[in-house]
Amino acid sequence: MAEEQWCTGGELKDICKCHEDTTHFKFVSTDYIVPIPRCMTKFTKAISLDLQWNDIREIRNLDTLVNLEKLNLNYNNIKKINGLENLKNLNHLDLRGNDIKRIEGLENLDKLNFLAIDVDNRYSPLDVEGKFDHMKGLEELHLHTKAGGVLRSPVSFPRLEKLKRLNLKTYAMKIEGLENFPNLEELKIEGQYTDKMEGFRVINKIKKTRYAYHSKHAFDKEN
Q1: With DSSP H G I counted as helix, E B as strand and the rest as coil, what are the percentages for the chain, rounded to 5?
Q2: Taking a C-beta distance cutoff of 8 angstroms, is the pair 148, 141 a contact?
Q3: Contacts of 186 by beta carbon, 8 Å cutoff, 6+ apart
Q4: What is the chain's Cα-based Rg?
Q5: For the chain, which domains are there?
Q6: What is the mean pLDDT of each run of 10 residues along the chain (223 residues)?
Q7: What pTM was estimated for this model as a whole?
């Protein structure tokens, strides 16, 4: 196994100064910074890349990072998920705190075990059908719609046998398919208008349940 080499900093443009054999990157800033620089393509040995809290508008220049396993792009200004097609070894993807309009561009990411996305869909319902079916190893899913955004109802999830933690913030009226998570241990639902949840009572391994707003009524109806 190759030796870990870290490179950290605050200015994203300084990432070009890192050694080509660097495996772990962390460049975090609260300033308005430049896009992901072209020099990023030379870091083919990269395993983890943390670029949270930058003013990144577009996912680019990551195509050659085929060994990348962990990618944090949370709290940027990304509106579209793209440029991840070649990152087939990715198992951790965090896109929270962006302005993403729809779930797309994840079709080749079969190895994900952690996925977190905030979606800004205030003007149209978000359809999640078929978006996660290929992620058979997914263990933790955070899916939030921003204030005023809704999930197309009913929300129906595929069978994800390894899923242990689900954090869902939605304004959908009905959520079904919870029975497709037989190993779920933690469930957090925030949904002001969620009125019915189907499949909750068949989850035997659940250890922690949290709800907010009116979701309590949906739990009560099944228990």
Answers
A1: 10, 25, 60
A2: no
A3: 164, 165, 166, 206, 207, 208, 209
A4: 19
A5: 1-101 (3.80.10.10), 121-223 (no CATH)
A6: 84 91 89 81 97 92 97 94 97 95 94 95 77 95 78 77 89 74 86 62 66 51 47
A7: 0.90
